[in-house]
Amino acid sequence: MSQYDVVVIGAGAAGLSAALVLSRARRKVLVLDGGEPRNAPAAHLHGYLSRDGLAPAELLAVGRTEVRGYGGDVVDGTVADLVPDGRNGFWVLLAGGQRISGRRLLLATGLRDELPDIPGLRERWARDVLHCPYCHGYEVRDRQVGVLGGTPGAVRYAHIVRQWTHDLVYFTPPDLLTTTERTQLLARAIGVVEGTIEGLVLDDNADQLSGVQLQDGCVIPREALFVPPRLVPNSGLLDQLGAEVDQDGWVTTDAAGLTSVAGVWAAGNVVDPRAQVVTAAGAGSASAIALNADLVEEDVRQTVRDLGHGLLPRPIAAVNSKESA
Predict the structure, then answer these.
(1) CA dist 86 → 5, 167, 174, 188, 264 (Å)
(2) Short-list 113, 115, 141, CA closest to 40
(3) What percent of the chain has pLDDT over 70?
(4) What is the CA radius of gyration of the chain?
(5) CA 1, CA 50: separation in Å to the nearest integer?
(6) Which residues are in coiled coils (predicted)?
(7) Pair 155, 178: CB distance under 8 Å
């Protein structure tokens, strides 16, 4: 059995950032890497000051090296169960049977994107089928771009995407748009195509999206398609611990990431669906600072108890004071 001050579950930007802060604070830290980062299909990450354009895998590799450089452990492992140990800590049970003890937990397990059931959509994900205009809009600027509508907020999403291109088409099932929405789209020169999408059309020679095919056979030329996915938190372990959730099913935390479960923090996309890589990293850092302060408070309580039981030597200052007298 291994014992740690903090077990970090999830080795993305939030988890590694937290582990870096904690290991530099001389805590014994373990990061468990499930090996399925959300942005793995993307060639580059953007909007991260000093790291813009870096491959996501490279950022994580650098992060793991930095954490290990300060004595933190980063290992591959899938968590099967979390069990309170009855002493303000937790047992972390891995799928392979290993049991780990942690005084505190930080979950940075991210989220998953659930896409509409359209043939070819998943295969092109993060290449020319995209979800975040702030992450990918600049790379497809001034091209023929589409937005897949039909979901709440999709029209507003299309107006944001319009920031990056003058040639934008909004795809929507028939009879969903209100008069106001039609007027707004028309005013911003956003084309509207109503119908059922059959699939994507590819330029096989260039391995590039070339169009969107409708059920009636019509093909609308497009070079990129923005799809607002359904964002689902990977919060099963937090749910299992009984963490409180909001009305939409997302685990709630305080400003530093503390959940309703004592000793359990959460950071990154598992609690904030809008967090980009840089935001998630910052949240991980903030959680780590609050988490370490919580551990310090517990350390103080424990040492005071030990002192009262005669288990510790008297403080140096007290000894010197007596000798001076």
Answers:
(1) 16, 60, 57, 60, 14
(2) 113
(3) 95
(4) 25
(5) 40
(6) none
(7) no
